[in-house]
Specification:
heterodimer; A: 276 residues; mainly alpha; ABC transporter involved in vitamin B12 uptake, BtuC; 13 helices; 86% helix; 0% strand; globular; B: 233 residues; alpha/beta; Rossmann fold; six-stranded mixed β-sheet; three-stranded antiparallel β-sheet; 9 helices
Chain lengths: 276, 233
């Protein structure tokens, strides 16, 4: 095990995984609170257009996808305010539109695209130092933003009218939140791929909700669950030579059912002992 | 000085006129009930007062525009719809609205009997308890005007009495002007200083004993409604 961890690519993968798990798990709480589990999934799929544009133009696909996703996040927030249409419908619009544009753009590039496959299904073991630096800078910016604004964001998500009366500029905070989710989602694509990235936003908070007794606990337990998912998944994937992204998601699923089983057993035994 | 002064307020959403040239004043320190049938424009009036929707006419709150007066307004919404499985304690919820709670805020929690709910989860509160938390949340901003949108809806009779006592206390002891949307005409009849009856137009405005005439009730609810004098125990 130590030999594996001594390998530079594995060290980069673990650092990237731990960092992304932290950001995506915390942001996942806001996504679930907004009841927009679909948001990260939609942004991830739409970012294919950015990846394709980057590949075609010979630019870093990650950077192009980051820029495009930030614009799409702001666009969804703007459309939601202007049209009063349901968020899910708007995300569906952007999701399919971005994906379709990506497919069309990729038609101009002939031959096998290894970079494209890595964006579709993730390839954390191929993370480079320059990508790690981008992740660290943006990840830190996201965490600082959330630390400063999380109370205002939560009040806005719980009730917009109350937040307005409390002097919170809804349009600004909603746009900032969507752009933040969009950027974090694209960063997570390197780890889990377009197809699976939303799992790291949804699974940890879903597990934490099973046991948390306060919002503070929810944050801590979500982060712990996400880190466990990533570390267990990475080690399992390297040990058995399996795709890292998919194994991380399956680890999360196994953890969820294990936690559910333990909780049910504890509840039953407490119920039985109270009847005795 | 009036707490609220509304002149020629009209709200049109799409092709529907929701409020039509409504004018009224609310005296500072008074307790006011806004009544009217469903779809009569009560919640729309509140949204206009809060500056949440565009409107024609003039609204002055403590002689200021709605935007400038917002730091003196507290609001308790009709719908508080959120994921009830999310574990947020009452203490945490109140800290989201006001991160730095003062001694006065702790007093608000005590007066609203919210301090005994501090460690409970918001999603597990009864209708009456949740209403008290929302009122505490609004009072923590030390408002001079409190807007309550159907606050007693979904509360049992015991909770209702606690709620009306609390509102009376906030109004009389702290001098907070209160505007409350209500469907409980009998409660309003005994409780409010002034009523504002809406049915797209302003149907009546004044002390309930004077304003709630048979003719007004017919205009609001049709000919089968009347006010019966009975008191809640």
């Amino acid at each position: 095990m130590m030999e594996i961890l001594a390998l530079p690519f594995m060290q980069r993968a673990v650092i990237a995984g731990v960092l992304l798990a932290l950001i995506l798990a915390v942001l996942g709480i806001f996504v679930v609170l907004k009841r927009m589990a679909f948001l990260s999934d939609g942004i991830a799929h739409a970012s294919l257009a950015g990846v394709a544009a980057g590949i075609l133009a010979g630019l870093n696909p990650l950077l192009v996808a980051l820029g495009l996703s930030a614009i799409l996040g702001a666009l969804i927030a703007w459309l939601e305010r202007r049209t009063k249409l349901a968020g899910d419908a708007l995300i569906g619009l952007v999701f399919t539109g971005g994906m379709a544009l990506g497919v069309v753009l990729l038609a101009f590039k002939r031959g096998y695209q290894p970079e494209l496959v890595s964006f579709l299904f993730g390839n954390i073991l191929a993370v480079q130092w320059n990508e790690l630096i981008i992740m660290a800078i943006l990840g830190l910016a996201i965490l600082i933003f959330l630390m400063i604004c999380y109370k205002r964001l939560i009040l806005m998500l719980v009730n917009q009218d109350m937040a307005h009366v409390a002097g919170i500029p809804i349009a600004v905070y909603q746009t900032l939140l969507y752009v933040t989710v969009a950027i974090a989602t694209v960063l997570g694509i390197k780890l889990l791929g377009i197809v699976l990235v939303s799992a790291l936003m949804i699974m940890p908070v879903t597990m934490a909700k099973l046991v948390a007794k306060s919002f503070r606990q929810l944050i801590v337990l979500s982060v712990v669950a996400a880190e466990l998912m990533v570390v267990l998944g990475l080690l399992t994937s390297v040990t058995f030579d399996l795709p890292a992204g998919a194994v991380i998601v399956l680890c999360g699923l196994a953890m969820f059912f294990a936690l559910l089983a333990i909780k049910t057993l504890i509840k039953q035994s407490t119920h039985l002992s109270s009847r005795a | 000085m009036n707490a609220v002064s509304v002149k020629n307020l009209s709200v049109v959403l799409g092709e529907n006129t929701i409020l039509n040239h409504v004018s009224f004043d609310v005296t500072k320190g008074s307790l006011n009930a806004v009544i009217g049938p469903n779809g009569s424009g009560k919640t729309t009036l509140f949204k206009a007062l809060l500056g949440l929707i565009p409107f024609d006419g003039t609204i002055k709150i403590f002689d200021k525009s709605t935007k400038d007066a917002m730091n003196r307004v507290g609001y308790v919404p009709q719908h508080f719809d959120f994921d009830r499985t999310l574990p947020i304690t009452v203490r945490e919820f109140l800290s989201f609205a006001k991160p730095d709670q003062s001694k006065q805020d702790k007093e608000v929690c005590h007066e609203t009997k919210v301090d005994e709910l501090n460690d409970k989860l918001i999603g597990q509160l009864s209708g009456g308890q949740l209403q008290r938390v929302l009122i505490a949340n609004a009072l923590m901003r030390n408002p001079k005007l409190l807007l309550l949108d159907e606050p007693a809806a979904g509360i049992d009779m015991e909770g209702e009495k606690v709620f009306y006592d609390l509102i009376g206390h906030v109004n009389k002891k702290h001098g907070v002007t209160i505007m409350m949307i209500s469907h409980e005409i009998n409660m309003v009849y005994h409780f409010a200083d002034q009523i504002i009856c809406l049915n797209r137009d302003l149907v009546c405005n004044g002390p309930p004993q004077e304003a709630l005439t048979r003719e007004v009730m017919d205009k609001l609810y049709g000919e089968r409604m009347d006010v019966c004098d009975h008191r809640h125990v």
